[in-house]
Design brief:
Order of helices and strands: HHH
Number of helices: 3
Strand content: under 5%
Shape: elongated
Number of domains: 1
Number of strands: 0
């Protein structure tokens, strides 16, 4: 199991960012702008993964742990 280092407000913000980027991806892909849509989709997947697993590789690298934040 992966060590958790994302929690509290950080997890909520990542969840909201994933949702917003998903909407951006869907909207831009429907308009035919593939590059922006795919970049937004990759960002949404990344933030969604972080929120779902409570793990962020960048946080680990920087020594940041937000699991104890309120």
């Amino acid at each position: 199991m992966v060590e958790q280092n994302v929690g509290g407000r950080d997890r909520l913000v990542r969840t909201l960012l994933a949702a917003v980027l998903t909407l951006v991806a869907v909207t831009t892909l429907r308009k035919g702008n593939r590059k922006t849509g795919l970049l937004a989709l990759v960002g949404a997947l990344g933030f969604g993964f972080n929120a779902a697993t409570c793990f962020c590789g960048l946080n680990k690298t920087l020594g940041i742990d937000t699991t104890t934040d309120e």
